[in-house]
Amino acid sequence: RRGTWGQLTYPLLLSCLSVMLRVLSFLALLSLAVGSAPEQIHISFGENPTEMYVAWSTQSISPPSYVKYRLENSEAEPVVVEARSKVFVDWGPQKRAQWLHEATMSGLTPNARYSYQVGSDKTGFSNWFSFSAQRDGFDWGPRLAIFGDMGHFNAHSLAPLTNETLAGMYDAILHVGDFAYD
Fold first, then answer.
1. Does residue 32 surpass a pLDDT of 50?
2. What element of type H or E holds 119?
3. pLDDT tens, position by position, 7-28
4. What is the mean pLDDT of residues 115-143?
5. What is the pTM of this model?
6. Spatial CB neighbours of 171, under 8 Å, sequence gap ≥ 6
7. How far apart are CA 167 and CA 164, in angstroms?
8. Greater confidence, 102 or 6?
9. CA–CA dist 41, 1 (Å, integer)
10. Angstrom distance (rounded) from CA 58 to CA 103
11. What is the mean pLDDT of residues 20-46?
C-alpha cells in the first residue's frame, strides 16, 4: 500500500511542482515587467511650436526606450524616437534607483492633435495619450491652470480640474510643486 501510494503520488507531485515553477517564473517575469512599466509620464512645450518634450520613469532599466507619436486618429505608422535615459538614485537611506527617460517629438504641425505612447519593446508601452501642439504666432494667449500641493487625501479640486481639462479648457497646466508622497 505504501509503495502504490508513493508511485501514484510521485508523478503527481512532480507534475504539480513543474506547474508551480512555471507559475512562479511567469509571476517573476510579470513583476519585472510591471516594475519597469512607464510611469510619471508628462509632456512639456519644446523650444518652438513644432516640438514637444516627453519624460517618464521606470523602476528598472529598460533600454532602449522610445516615444511613438502620430496625428490623432491617423492610421499612419507612428514616428519612433529613441529616448535619452539615465539612472537617478534618491538620497534616502534605501538609495532607491529609477530610470529617467526623455525624448523630443519634433516636426509637429502647430495646433494639431497628436497621440503618443512611451516604453520599450522589452517591457511594453504605456497607453496612448494625446495632446495639442503649441499654437504658432502671437495672436493668441495661453489658457492655463496653475496649482500646487493638491494633497494626497484631500484633493477637492482634482475632479473639477480633470473635467475642465477633458473639456479642452486649458492649453497647459502648471504644477508648481510638491509632487511626491512616498
1. no
2. strand 113-120
3. 444 444 344 434 444 444 444 3
4. 91
5. 0.70
6. 132, 135, 142, 143, 144
7. 5
8. 102
9. 63
10. 14
11. 63
Q: Please give the DSSP secondary-structure letter assigned to residue 136.
A: P
Task: Using alpha carbons, select from 95, 91, 38 the residue that is nearest to residue 61.
Answer: 38
Q: Which residues contact 175 (CB under 8 A, 6 or more apart)?
A: 147, 148
**Three-class SS state of 31:** helix
Percent of the chain with pLDDT over 90: 41
Cβ(182)–Cβ(39) below 8 Å: no
Q: What is the 3-state secondary structure (H, E, C) of the chain?
A: CHHHHHHHHHHHHHHHHHHHHHHHHHHHHHHHHHHCCCEEEEEEECCCCCEEEEEEEECCCCCCCEEEEEECCCCCCCEEEECEEEEEECCCCCCCEEEEEEEEEECCCCCCEEEEEEEECCCEECCCEEEECCCCCCCCCCCEEEECCCCCCCCCCHHHHHHHHHCCCCCEEEECCCCCCC
116 neighbors 38 (Cβ within 8 angstroms): no
Between 10 and 138, name the one with better pLDDT: 138
